[in-house]
Amino acid sequence: MTRHRKALLVTGASRGIGAETAKLAAAHGWRVAVNYVRDQQAAGNVVAQIEEQGGEAFAIQGDVGSQRDIMEMFEAVDGRFGSLEGLVNNAGVVDVAQRVDEMSLERLERMMRINVTGSILCAREAVKRMSTKHGGGGGSIVNLSSVAAVLGAPGQYVDYAAAKGAIDVFTLGLAREVAEEGIRVNAVRPGIIDTEIHASGGQPDRAERLKGLIPMKRPGTAEEVARAIVWLLSDDASYSTGAVLDVTGGR
Ligand code: NAP
Predict the structure, then answer these.
(1) Is 87 touching ligand 1 by the criterion CB < 6 Å?
(2) Which domains does the chain carry?
């Protein structure tokens, strides 16, 4: 356990990688704001599990596709914790498998609004609170990329891959922009992880079906990704910034 109970916001923490990150971070001494968009009960369960282990957490509803929701979310964190030392930009969406020549403007706008603009706006609010330039005490931001950013996801969701490519470049640029201000910014780039995101894109069997493409011949677990995220958040990663850590089973 760390001596000071630093405050962390994990977006999209009601299930999957975000939920495991919230729980593991709490076990490492972070106070955690558990964001969700729809599933209040699932977020409440994550908070209850953290509290049962002696940790501190609260659930906060908010759509990272909405600037107003993001502002309210950070204000709620200010009110509850009084400071912010960690942000995990985890909330993200895929869509059904389509070729680019089938994609609608509505699909593309949702994909970019949630996965790219939402992460940048959350990082903006975090930097305002963490930066020594603004009177903060520093902090750590971890963004969720995807191996799709290097594979391109042809015939599946090239738009998602492009959004995650943007996250990689944003991670590098922001890391260099705020490196002198006490803030580290890194990304984790998961491969195929066994979560409900695949069902949300209409492919509930995707992780099982594609496991033969993974050198380790199995999908990863949300907890395996969470371990990488919590390490990058921690002071153990004190000289890492602008890094993108692959958690892909070798893919
Ligand atoms: P998931 O199981 O589908 O969970 C998504 C989480 O994000 C849920 O807590 C959901 O909340 C929340 N969420 C969705 N839209 C949101 C919005 N607009 N605002 C706030 N929260 C929102 O996803 P996952 O597989 O854990 O993925 C987490 C991150 O890892 C994503 O950025 C994803 O792109 C990335 N990733 C995943 C994989 C993989 O194979 N699973 C691979 C590479 C990268 P509700 O429960 O309330 O809906």
Answers:
(1) no
(2) 7-247 (3.40.50.720)
